């Protein structure tokens, strides 16, 4: 099938012609599932099998969300806890639009897919896959039809790793363990949540700073971070260690965040939902923005990237493996109920419902801090659009958030509506910057593809997978990104003006994105694996080898085909630290 999309202006920061004098207006050509150059035979242009008129529109690659909680048991627990917040199952019928699956902040897998596609997103990553729950997480994400999905393997609080670090095991053994775990669980990257803190909580510790020794293993979060950052780099993963820092939500936690950057020792590191880790203690409320301190640190440390975790006002639910801080946050639950549990001693799980209010000083300043980070970091390839769905708010708020970033007048209006003391203490009013369409394309397409090692997407470059989104040009950026005219997934039109395009004859095109490491290159021998199994058996109720998801199991049992990706293109070696003055 040869497809031509004509008349759109291409917005692609990686393509030279998108900045051409004609504004990049031209054709996008697709053959089957790939983007191609304009085809011709003996100098004559070929006619397309099907054409789409995109005059008055822009063309972008499909959006990529690198941090959104869309799979795994924590979502199910949240739905069970908040069943009274959902439209009632029993009263809902096929003719009623208010279904439980349509919850604003806890939609079902199928509704999640529809809402992402209706904004032009085609790839989404679940950032917290506990190894013992990986099958369940992948199975739920397999129902997010039309969207490529993947997960980050959760390490850094599991006893096997903590034991080995405490014993000063050689780095090559740590590397072998990390490589085996991320490959066995069919994940794309590695994440650590409150390094060592979830484990310390189980020993009745209520706070663990970056340089505080663990109550049992006598190692610090800094050592865990340094060890994992090096392991992720040396085994060749494209995405840096994905870090949920210590002391989430605690006033003054900017010190922990800066210490975490130092702990990386120059290796690439990604700080997730950074807004929740950017707090000072100044002012009458003893709560202030420390966004400028993180921005300054990022200018010096070029190895650091972040996603923001922007909060949006309204009811939501917070879900996190960080049971230490979810326990503390449970006192602020709205409504007053929560869930805390442990899963096979690999991590934790805390579900705490929450309502962000414009009338609250802290919530208003959190909102402003997120926008400060977006606007003060001048390189859109190092800051990523997230709400930490659903923790800061639902992902469906992205169009509104893009409007705030691209339109200073809209931002000033919103700033005038928050708590006046928060508005006065924020630097947001003095920031003139407005995101361009190229900035948006970089932050939501090209940069996430690069940092995740998704080398065939994020750009309209010929040879890439044909995930293409066509947006009608409007002055109102929020409305523009709220509903594309066309959404193509792997070359197939699946959305037109916000409605699904039915094609019963089409095969499923979405996939699970996962690394395919050659474990023989990490020197995993029988003796190493036997040691890992022995250590795992001391705290687990089943054998380590049961974590492994076979390649055939993904399509035949879980229901998703594997797509190998996520490795760096440059060879591994000693990191240069990415530092500059």
From TrEMBL:
The keyword Transferase applies. Its EC number is 3.5.1.-. Keywords: Hydrolase, Transferase. Pfam families: Amidohydro_3. GO terms for molecular function: hydrolase activity, acting on carbon-nitrogen (but not peptide) bonds; transferase activity. InterPro entries: Amidohydro_3, Formylmethanofuran_DH_asu, Metal-dep_hydrolase_composite, Metal_Hydrolase, Metallo-dep_Hydrolases_sf. The keyword S-adenosyl-L-methionine does not apply. PANTHER family: COLLAPSIN RESPONSE MEDIATOR PROTEIN, HYDRANTOINASE/DIHYDROPYRIMIDINASE FAMILY MEMBER. This is Formyltransferase/hydrolase complex Fhc subunit A. It comes from Neorhodopirellula pilleata. The gene is fhcA.
